[in-house]
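[User] I wish I could look at a protein chain and see how it folds. I have put the entry right below:
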Amino acid sequence: MFKFKEFLNEKKKLDLLKYCIFDWDDNILKMHTLLHYQKNVNGEWINVDITPEEFANIRKKYATDYMDNPEWRGDFNTSFIEFRDYGPRGPQGFVDDVGTSIKMGNFGPSWEIFINVLKNGNLFAIVTTRGHEPPTLKNGVKWIIDNYLSEQDREEMKINLKQFNKLFGDNISDDKLIEDYLNKCYFIGLFSSSFEKEYGFVPGGTTLNKGKQVAIEYFTNYVRNYAKQHKIPMKIGFSDDDVRFSNAAKELFMGMERSLDFLEDFYVFNTSDPNLKGGIKTKILA
């Protein structure tokens, strides 16, 4: 049993590039964004609000009919309204919920890893089943950098970003380092309009796994270009609390042809056990 933290901290020099892909809910943070559902209570359907964690349990139990089963019933137009930018609180709702979860100490198994990723200046992706647009997800991470990281953490982050930029010939002014860094990272919500525009379909039901896979594949190929420039070995890890998505990532990585120009390793981290920080590491063999 290995931890994601050990994977990330094996080396800090830029003779090995590390990239990370994170699911958000119950992986980075335990969010309390409410879903609007109906529950069958003694034959009567009662309106209830549930947390993402409760929804995840419903989805695990009813993988293909989580919106309509004997116990639970949802509506695609209203159940997830708080998980979209057009909900009653608008895009700011996601940022507010990020702040609330942090203030309450509701951290997921990959929280410490994510913070290390930020401080190390590692490029990362957020691939979530939420429907927020990329700028909204980016603003949530920006809030963490501005409000959770200490001044010392941010200085460490900037030093690492300068090292990365120097290697790849990017001349970024100090006041633009973090902005440039976040612009180089990748943010996507599977149910956002951006996803449909970029990939040409709306994932759901049997195509939900495919949604995660195409986003993971996009980011993997994107960061491969950095490794290819200097033929630097790279590692890329994906973490998710949903075993189905972890398995989908394993399937994807196993089918990807490895580069002949540089060494690359793929890892998947199963964080379904909320008490196991960093999750369980699986190296995907070629």
Observations:
- The first strand starts at residue 17 and ends at 22.
- DSSP finds ten helices and nine strands in the chain.
- The beta strands are 17-22, 35-41, 44-50, 72-73, 124-128, 186-189, 234-240, 264-270, 280-284.
